[in-house]
Amino acid sequence: MASELSPEQDFVLKTVEGRDVHFVRCWFSDVLGNMKSFAMVPGELEGAFAGGMGFDGSCIEGFSRTQDSDMLAFPLASTFQVLPWRPQTDAVARMFCRICTPDGAPFEGDPRQVLARAIEHAADLGFMVNIGSDIEFFYFKDAHGTEVLDRGSYFDLTSLDYASDLRRDTVLALEKMGIPVEYSHHEVAPSQHEIDLRYSDAMSMADAVMTYKLVVREIALKHGVHASFMPKPMAEHPGNGMHVHMSLTDSDGRNAFFDASDASGYNLSATAKSFIAGILAHARELCLVTNQYVNSYKRFCGAAHASSALVWARSNRSAMVRVPGYRPASAEACRIEVCNPDPAANPYLAFAVLLGAGLAGVEEGLELDSAAEKLDMEGMSVQQLAEQGIRCLPETLGEAVEEFAASKLMRDILGDHIHDYLVEAKRAEWAAYQQIVTPWELDRFLAVL
Known about the structure:
Blueprint: H1 7-18, E1 21-29, E2 35-40, H2 45-51, E3 53-56, E4 70-75, E5 81-82, E6 91-100, H3 111-124, E7 128-140, H4 164-176, E8 181-186, E9 192-201, H5 202-222, E10 226-228, E11 242-249, H6 270-281, H7 283-290, E12 309-313, E13 319-322, E14 336-338, H8 347-364, H9 382-387, H10 397-405, H11 408-434, H12 439-445
Parallel strand pairs: 1-6, 12-13
Antiparallel strand pairs: 1-2, 3-4, 4-6, 5-6, 7-9, 7-10, 7-11, 8-9, 11-14, 13-14
Helix pairs in contact: 3-8, 3-11, 4-5, 6-8, 7-8, 7-10, 8-11, 10-11
């Protein structure tokens, strides 16, 4: 059977033997972006490469009904990495998997394959997709509350930044797994941190985001603390975002977003402008995917950095889409930054809907409105923005799910299976949330009404 292996699969087998790997974890994502895994011993690898590993899909959120539950996971040799936080004797490795039905067809509920379709659509249009991610999180004393570890703020490098060692160990672990890191620093809120991943192709970045979140949590546990990617864990402080940097490369290897002759002065090509216009045009429809929980929408309330205003700019950080201006004359650096997603999103689906919306704008030749550079949106209400002719993202999960449910584009990108599941699951989440009587209501009304 060894002769039938691809070079990548053969490399995995040799690495497993040479590095004393005794367990290989098969990783995949449910529809909501939760990591799922099962382990196999090295002797099962060749069979898994050839015929997949069977599992019960009815146990996975958003996968299959009990009567259609048989699934196959095919490990992808190109994603093989030894886990650096596990012992190096009797080591543990991982591979991401593609999920198929028993007849070998791609399973329509597999988020990774949704992104694969979106990437293929971009390739059909002559583009390769590049994505980078800036991901924020909090360190708390434990998982039972929001007791912070420090009182630091932006870029602090003092005793206030208690978590420097945690970030260092996290960055080292990521780099050992082949995930290059661009920056790491303390964020604006107490005990809030950010690690920025260097851009790569879209699928590698989605895999990296899934790995990143697990590594952050694992390193935190080793240090005896809890890491949280909850969008808005503390009312009095900004929430966690996942800024998504995007660009397209054309068939000649050039940045399709860059045009030095752009009359507007932003060095943006017509492709880039239509891509931004597409994202802004469909932002309310895709918001359920990029911001998928009840808590996600509290991050938008009264916090300009959450960027819920459907405008674009270079310097105005209240805009949902920015064109970073650190090196404005560099073709290599030209990109857009989408600021509304949060790190609780499923990265495969989030990248797929952003890419699909942008490409829809390109295919339709959408015109981009003027940049909102001088409009001070800090502290402005949705109503005040509307008076300026500016739309905003949905204010609640309930509003977002109805926009999503009515969207033909979201159904086309995600497929019927995932679209229908998200509508049902998120309507149920919103209905359950609405029935809760909060401490705020009791404090405000119980004694006086």
